[in-house]
Specification:
It is built from 6 helices and 5 strands. It is α+β, with helices and mostly antiparallel strands and 160 residues long. Helix 1 runs parallel beside helix 3.
Length: 160
């Protein structure tokens, strides 16, 4: 079995220094070797990278670090974290992230504004702001949400 480092080299060949702010290791931070191979072999990587393109542009605009907390998930990984059986993470169509250095309310406001004017918004379907855990879920369009929709979940009080 290949080591995770070797699998990441395969992905790096495809991406070839496309990103300034995100490394392949960061994008697949929560994935094991088999999950990365599954993502590549099922041709999910291109979908996932569309979302990373959005994060890269947002990072450039806000000037604050962004950390990917979840990207592609295998069915086993998804079950372990309590994800939905229809989660778009299962096919590389969703990514969760946090932004360091800003209050969450500020991140929400800035991300909504960014997405509304962003040329990369075509193909996005869902943005969920999780106020209780202070992360954002970004997903591509799907039959359940073919056009961009914003949702807010969690406790909206004391969001700092």
């Amino acid at each position: 079995m290949m080591k995770k480092l070797n699998v990441l080299k395969i992905v790096k060949i495809k991406v070839m220094n496309k990103y300034i702010y995100f490394t392949i290791s960061e994008i697949f931070r929560t994935c094991n070797n088999d999950e990365i191979l599954q993502c590549i072999s099922n041709n999910y990587l291109d979908r996932l990278l569309l979302l990373v393109d959005v994060l890269e542009a947002f990072r450039e605009e806000i000037g604050c670090p962004i950390y990917v907390t979840s990207s592609f998930r295998s069915p086993e990984h998804n079950e372990r974290v309590g994800g939905s059986s229809t989660s778009q993470h299962l096919c590389g169509e969703a990514i969760d992230f946090v932004v360091a250095g800003l209050f969450f309310d500020d991140v929400v406001c800035r991300f909504k504004s960014f997405i509304k004017k962003c040329s990369l918004r075509e193909g996005l379907g869902q943005v969920i702001f999780y106020y209780d855990k202070k992360f954002i879920h970004l997903a591509l369009s799907a039959p359940s949400h073919p056009k961009l929709q914003f949702y807010e979940k969690g406790n909206f009080k004391d969001n700092h």
